[in-house]
Amino acid sequence: MEFIQYLIDLVLHLDVHLNELILMFGVWTYAILFLIIFAETGLVITPFLPGDSLLFALGALAAGGAFHLETLMILLTIASIAGDTTNYSIGNYLGPKVFHFENSRFFNKDYLMKTHGFYEKHGGKTIILAKFLPIFRTFAPFVAGIGSMTYPKFIMFNVIGGLVWINGFLLLGFFFGNIPFVKENFGVVILAIIFISILPAVYQVVKAKMAK
């Protein structure tokens, strides 16, 4: 329960916590931020880490001089691309070892072939769109690896997705984060960003249920 309360407080007061990080670690804050983005995109056990909201808050603080915007853009884009690549590699290593049974209910080899077919056909847009969806951006590259999506295709869309996602939210925060209304209602704005981020996933779930 305390951990959940901490996460809620972290999300609602990102600007405060980031300022605390700067005071505590100085220039090493950039390394910590790199690791956060890398872990959120590269490790399937850390999908709960802040993504969109963190980037928006960083952009807003960069506008106030707390961070160097160009440094954030370069470092965090590299972190996102490296994270997805690591996640893909883990999935690609585990996939053939786990999904090699012909008659298994959960690890059937046929599932592996279907996953591969899906990612060969729709993998590009899946990798890019997943960047803008919490949870999904953590698992999409992992599943792409399991399905052995062609690596040159994966890395191309990984780079495109990382550039658009990281730089898009940083610039949104940079240009809009310090508007008086946004600054006074920062927690509400962050929640709105999270809500908007999960809307496409909710829509797809509702659409699928209605189709049934």
Structural account:
- The protein has ten helices and no strands.
- The chain is mainly α and 212 residues long.
- The mean pLDDT is 79.
- It has helices at 2-12, 14-25, 29-42, 52-63, 69-98, 109-130, 136-146, 151-176, 180-184, 186-211.
- The radius of gyration is 18 Å and the shape is globular.
- The two termini are 36 Å apart.
- α4 crosses α8 (151-176).
- It has one domain.
Secondary-structure map:
Elements: H1 2-12, H2 14-25, H3 29-42, H4 52-63, H5 69-98, H6 109-130, H7 136-146, H8 151-176, H9 180-184, H10 186-211
| Sheet/helix structural class | mainly alpha
What proportion strand?
under 5%
Number of domains: 1
Gyration radius, in Å: 18 Å
Order of helices and strands: HHHHHHHHHH
The N- to C-terminal Cα distance equals: 36 Å
Largest sheet: none
* Overall pLDDT score: 79
Quaternary assembly: single chain
Number of helices: 10
Fraction of residues in H or I helices: over 70%
- Are there runs of 5+ residues with pLDDT below 50, and where? none
Tell me the overall shape. Answer: globular
Structure at a glance:
By secondary structure, the protein is mainly alpha-helical. It has helices at residues 2-12, 14-25, 29-42, 52-63, 69-98, 109-130, 136-146, 151-176, 180-184, 186-211.
Question: Notable features of this structure?
Answer:
single chain; 212 residues; mainly alpha
